[in-house]
Design a protein that fits this description.
By secondary structure, the chain is mainly beta. It is about 5% helix and about 35% strand. It has 2 helices and 32 strands. The N and C termini lie close together (about 5 Å). The N terminus is likely disordered. Its main location: secreted. Belongs to the glycosyl hydrolase 28 family. This is Polygalacturonase. Keywords: Cell wall, Cell wall biogenesis/degradation, Glycosidase, Hydrolase, Secreted.
Length: about 525
């Protein structure tokens, strides 16, 4: 996918005055922001505190990045805030801040407030309140900076609903302090829908409060069909005192006993919107993905919680696709798949101070499925704590794809009992068989620094393409200790991976090939993003 607005070789903070799109939301800065580095000299990690951050002067090589401010939640409209010029020092690993309390009372300045109770909602947990929510939205849609309130101490049963523009006024606030629950009757979903609560084509939409979105997904999970995608790294899990099982038995399922449709919905989705904020709320037990942003620009997510069991199938925490200028921080993400999944078309994504686990870690991909082109650039993930996850930080691409992933920094990641802390897998396959193909998504400028803690299977797994090796992969201050649990353990593995060991590592990663490949294929115009 051609990223027309992407500024290559620079971090997005310097691109086209991006503060006007994402950071005009807030009038003040808060939290932490950090130096983003995608190759070259080692970046420093700043302290996590409530102050603006520095803007370092860009140097070569390209893909040098500067920090982002962490906005303080406020009602729209928003303004950009200046940055200081002092240079911070690296601190010890910070922990995410306690979840903030967001006021139930509407802030001053909202011209009109619409309480769903005034539109006939009962909030008794059994009456269908979908029409009341639709009516409240229709009223709020007509007025700029209006507010919909979902009051505390009520439980609203709401079916699939679209809060849609593009003719709605800007800067609407959805104040969620009560609980919204999904129907578990299959009739409410017809033959299956991809979304439950869907916000589309809006400008300046904020969902905030102390409330809960409960997808009641367990009724869907038990119907997970046998052909649901499985995570590719599962094939590396070999229980102690057993041999490798090439074709593990799959659960036998039958549509005759199915309760819910085979298509499972995302709990909360934003599509084609600008300046989107989600803060304070809890999303739990989604049938599939919990929070999704498709083709949005200027996304701010902070102080939210995602909660689903570690064995709930395909329940990603936050899923990004085709979205730019994204800031995620101070979130607690527990789910059955990737805590954060970054798909094609994403650029200028900054994630920091997140707790992840259980889950499958933070992933870029999978990319390039069915010979598609994928473009991802300028991604920073730092100051993250992962506990009891399958993966730590991972990039996964399918054989046969094209395009590129470039300018990625994984920094200051604390892992605890993580099976595979560092993964590049260019042979990703979530099915039983995948054919070998020559073309691949090109990976370059992938930087790992200060990734520390314990692993239970393999510390590093780099499986890059034969025809298009990974280049400019750097490892700095990697300290990973084995913790024997229930699986066979492996040494670090590298295949067609070229780059630099900037410091000694533990364990030693001697398989990384220093420098550049001797015969690296030149990308064609078709491959370039």
């Amino acid at each position: 996918m051609k990223e027309k607005n992407e500024t290559r070789g620079k971090h997005w903070r310097h691109s086209r005055g991006i503060s006007a799109s994402l950071f005009k939301k807030k009038g003040k800065s808060q939290g932490s922001s950090n130096n983003h580095h995608s190759g070259g000299s080692k970046p420093k990690s700043p302290p996590h505190k409530a102050s603006p951050l520095p803007t370092p002067k860009p140097k070569s090589p390209p893909h040098k990045a500067s920090p982002l401010p962490t906005p303080k939640p406020k009602s729209p409209p928003h303004k950009a805030s200046p940055l200081p010029t002092h240079k911070p020092k690296a601190p010890p690993l910070p922990s995410p801040k306690p979840k903030e309390e967001f006021p139930s009372n509407p802030p001053a300045g909202h011209s009109t407030t619409f309480n769903v109770l005034d539109f006939g909602a009962k909030g008794d947990g059994s009456t269908d309140d979908t029409k009341a929510f639709q009516a409240a939205w229709a009223a709020a849609c007509k007025i700029e900076a209006s507010m919909i309130t979902v009051p505390a101490e009520y439980e609203f049963l709401v079916g699939p609903i679209s809060f849609s523009g593009p003719y709605c006024q800007a800067n609407i606030v959805f104040q969620l302090d009560g609980t919204i629950i999904a129907p578990t009757n299959s009739n409410a979903w017809g033959k299956g829908l991809f979304q439950w609560l869907d916000f589309t084509k809006l400008r300046g939409i904020t969902v905030q409060g102390n409330g809960i979105i409960d997808g009641r997904g367990s009724v869907w999970w038990q119907d997970a069909p046998f052909d649901d995608p499985i995570d590719d790294e599962i094939k590396l899990l070999v229980p102690l005192n057993s041999s490798v099982e090439e074709n593990p038995p799959m659960p036998v399922r039958s549509n005759l006993g199915r309760i819910m449709p085979s298509i499972k919905p995302t709990a909360l989705r934003f599509y084609g919107s600008f300046n989107v904020t989600v803060t304070g709320i809890t999303i739990q037990s989604s049938p599939q993905c919990h929070l999704k942003f498709d083709y949005c620009t200027g996304v701010l997510v902070h102080d939210i919680s995602v909660s689903s069991p570690g064995d709930s199938p395909n329940t990603d925490g936050i899923h990004l696709q085709g979205s730019k200028d994204v800031l995620i921080y101070s979130c607690n993400l527990a789910c059955g798949d990737d805590c954060v999944s970054i798909q094609t078309g994403c650029s200028n994504v900054y994630i920091h101070n997140v707790n992840c686990g259980p889950g499958h870690g933070i992933s870029i991909g999978s990319l390039g499925k069915d010979n598609t082109k994928a473009c991802v650039s300028n991604i920073t993930v730092r100051d993250v704590i992962m506990h009891n996850t399958m993966n730590g930080v991972r990039i996964k691409t399918w054989q046969g794809g094209s395009g590129s992933v470039q300018g990625v920094l994984f920094s200051n990641i604390q892992v605890s009992e993580v099976e595979f802390p560092i993964v590049i897998d260019q042979y990703y396959c979530d099915k039983r068989k995948c054919s070998n193909q020559t073309s691949a998504v090109a990976l370059s400028g992938i930087n790992y620094e200060r990734i520390r803690g314990t692993y239970t299977v393999k510390p590093v797994h780099f499986a890059c393409s034969d025809s298009l090796p990974c280049v400019d992969v750097s490892l700095t201050a990697i300290q990973l200790k084995p913790m024997q649990e229930k699986y066979h353990m492996y040494d670090p593995f590298c295949w067609q991976t070229f780059g630099e060991l900037r410091t000694p590592t533990m364990p030693p990663i001697g398989c990384l090939q220093i420098g550049k490949p001797s015969s690296n294929r030149i990308q064609s115009d078709h491959d370039l993003c």
